[in-house]
Specification:
By secondary structure, the chain is an alpha/beta fold. It folds into three domains: about 5-80, Arc Repressor Mutant, subunit A; about 85-170 and about 290-310, D-Maltodextrin-Binding Protein, domain 2; about 175-280, D-Maltodextrin-Binding Protein, domain 2, CATH 3.40.190. The protein is about 45% helix and about 20% strand. Strands 3, 4, 5, 6, 7, 8, 9, 10 and 11 form a nine-stranded mixed sheet that branches. Strand 1 and strand 2 form a beta hairpin. Helix 2 (about 15-25) crosses helix 4 and helix 3 crosses helix 4 (about 40-55). The longest helix is centred in the first third of the chain and has 28 residues, at about 70-95. The chain is elongated, with a radius of gyration of 25 Å. It starts with a helix and ends with a helix. About 35% of the residues are buried. The model has no long low-confidence stretch (mean pLDDT about 80).
Length: about 300
């Protein structure tokens, strides 16, 4: 495929904009309404794109249109192009004033339950002109769709330092797990408790094949104990804390989550010395995406503050 003839001269940003609209709406008529142009203009643009590239971008049917593998590949390029343009404009603004603008942050529920509220509260007080958009994402099963689709600028969570080709992970800090129960639990009143004592208790734990579950599994293995069969299996931090505070369950939470919820939700950290298995809190970004000065400002702030708020 000749770049100058077919791409450099024929395909314009406007064409990619139309492609994105059609792909998102699944219909050329809906895309034309969204773009405030006529249906023939949208149809002609897609046909010309297909002719220039020599491939079919959409499969047409009475129900609408669906991307072909060629269309999916070009769509990824279009998303990257427009995102880089947005990031470029943000960088221009941030060069003039890094303490202004906006930042989109993704994090799992367990991070929202402990670490992130403290960081964003203090960050916002110091940089009140930066608007933070915080979105719930799922990282326990190593899913990073929102990051890859550029719906968020960065992700903060307890994820493994994996060698995923398109992602970059920067460690914020490491922390241990703590055994916890509700303040009204029978275990909350005991001064001497061993992990083995809780073997037959009803546990609420993440699935053992998830990132936090694998670490908890290592704790039991290091203690030479058979891992319990949890009564409740969930990745929800909110559900875990709620069940624990009820007093009928025991569980394990990262160290930064437990103190934060101790007074607010009624958790009791049990005096059990667990094997030294640590979870890693990291900032995850796309390797191919240049971070704005505002994003870098937040990451540096979080890295400096995180060890303090987890003590």
């Amino acid at each position: 495929m000749d770049w100058v003839d077919r791409i450099g001269r024929r395909i314009k940003l406007r064409d990619l904009h139309v492609l994105l609209a059609v792909a998102e709406s699944g219909s050329m008529s809906k895309a034309s309404a969204q773009l405030a142009v006529s249906h023939p203009v949208v149809s002609k643009t897609i046909v010309q794109l297909e002719q220039s590239l020599g491939v079919r971008l959409f499969e047409r049917s009475a129900k609408g249109v669906e991307l072909t593998p060629y269309g999916t590949a070009l769509l990824g390029c279009g998303i990257a192009v427009f995102d880089e343009m947005r990031q470029g404009l943000k960088r221009l603004q941030a060069i003039a004033d890094p303490a202004a603008g906006e930042l989109r942050i993704g994090c799992p529920e367990i991070t929202m339950a402990g670490l992130l509220p403290i960081i964003v509260e203090r960050f916002s007080k110091q940089y009140p002109r930066i608007q933070l958009h915080v979105q719930l994402v799922q990282t326990a099963l190593m899913q990073f769709q929102e990051l890859r689709e550029r719906k968020i600028d960065l992700l903060i969570g307890r994820v493994q330092q994996s060698g995923v080709d398109d992602l970059k992970s920067e460690m914020l800090f490491t922390e241990p797990f703590l055994a916890v129960a509700g303040s009204g639990s029978k275990w909350a009143r005991r001064r001497n408790v061993k992990l083995a004592d809780l073997r037959n208790e009803p546990w609420v734990l993440p699935p053992y094949d998830s990132v936090p579950g694998l670490l908890i599994l290592q704790i039991f293995q290091a203690a030479k104990l058979e891992p319990p069969r949890p009564t409740i299996v969930t990745l929800s931090g909110q559900l875990t804390v709620t069940l624990l505070t009820g007093g009928g369950f025991v569980g394990m939470l990262p160290a930064s989550v437990s103190p934060f919820n101790r007074k607010r939700a009624g958790l009791k950290i049990l005096p059990i010395k667990l094997p030294a298995v640590h979870t890693v809190a990291s900032v995850v970004t796309l390797k191919t995406r240049t971070l704005s000065p505002t994003a870098r400002l937040f990451i540096n702030y979080a890295r400096n503050l995180a060890p303090l708020v987890t003590l």
